[in-house]
Amino acid sequence: MSIGLPKINVEFKAAAETLIRNAGRGVVALIVRDANPITNVVEMTSKEDIGQMMLSNNNKKFIEAAFLGYENPPKKVLVAVIGLKDPVIGEGDIGTGEGDTGTGEGDTAEKALEMLSAYDFDWIAGFPDGDEDDQQAIVDFVIDAREQQKAKYKAVVTIEADHKAIVSF
């Protein structure tokens, strides 16, 4: 009977080592506006996945920054790409970098947050060039999810927000 016990200990030790190695690696959710919106959330596990997306250079840099992490890079980055609020004519780096005219769809931040709500993530940030309404939508989403669903989301935003789960940057 004692022959099986060491095997179990080895399995527990291997599982513990995996847990410790991955404990500091979470999932980051990002929201960007682009002339080329994507109807589904894109899941990325490395910087190489960014090159396959048809996004503006600014959006690609924003996503790449998420892969830097602090001590450990995230194990996954979820990206929701929604259309531009207003059509922009002649802006060189809005869509594909070729003077796109924008989608004119007027997508809302709530649309992106609805897309992301089906996923499990730790941190959310978005709209690097977004206005206060976009940032406030993220703040409201995180606070509501924490209070109503007991979610553990945290957010990084560019507006002042007085909440323990919000980092104002």
Description:
This protein is an alpha/beta fold and 169 residues long. 33% of the residues lie in helices and 17% in strands. It has helices at 4-23, 57-66, 109-116, 132-148; strands at residues 27-33, 42-44, 76-82, 123-126, 154-157, 166-168.
Short description:
This protein has 169 residues and is α/β, with parallel strands linked by helices. The protein contains 4 helices and 6 strands, in the order H-E-E-H-E-H-E-H-E-E. Strands 2-3-1-4-5-6 form a 6-stranded mixed β-sheet, sandwiched between helices.
Can you tag this structure with a few keywords?
globular; single chain; about 35% helix; about 15% strand; 4 helices
Explain the layout of strands and helices.
Blueprint: H1 4-23, E1 27-33, E2 42-44, H2 57-66, E3 76-82, H3 109-116, E4 123-126, H4 132-148, E5 154-157, E6 166-168
Parallel strand pairs: 1-3, 1-4, 4-5, 5-6
Antiparallel strand pairs: 2-3
Number of helix segments?
4
Q: Strands of the biggest beta sheet: in what spatial order?
A: 2-3-1-4-5-6
What gap, in angstroms, lies between the N and C termini?
A: 59 Å
Which spans have pLDDT < 50 for at least 5 consecutive residues? Answer: 89-104
Which whole number gives the mean pLDDT? Answer: 80
H-E string = HEEHEHEHEE
Q: Could you give a short account of the major beta sheet? A: 6 strands, mixed
Taken from the alpha-carbon principal axes, the silhouette is globular
User: How many β strands by DSSP?
Assistant: 6
Radius of gyration: 19 Å
Q: How helix-rich are the residues, as a percent range?
A: 25-40%
- Structural class, judged by helices and strands? alpha/beta
Strand % is 15-25%
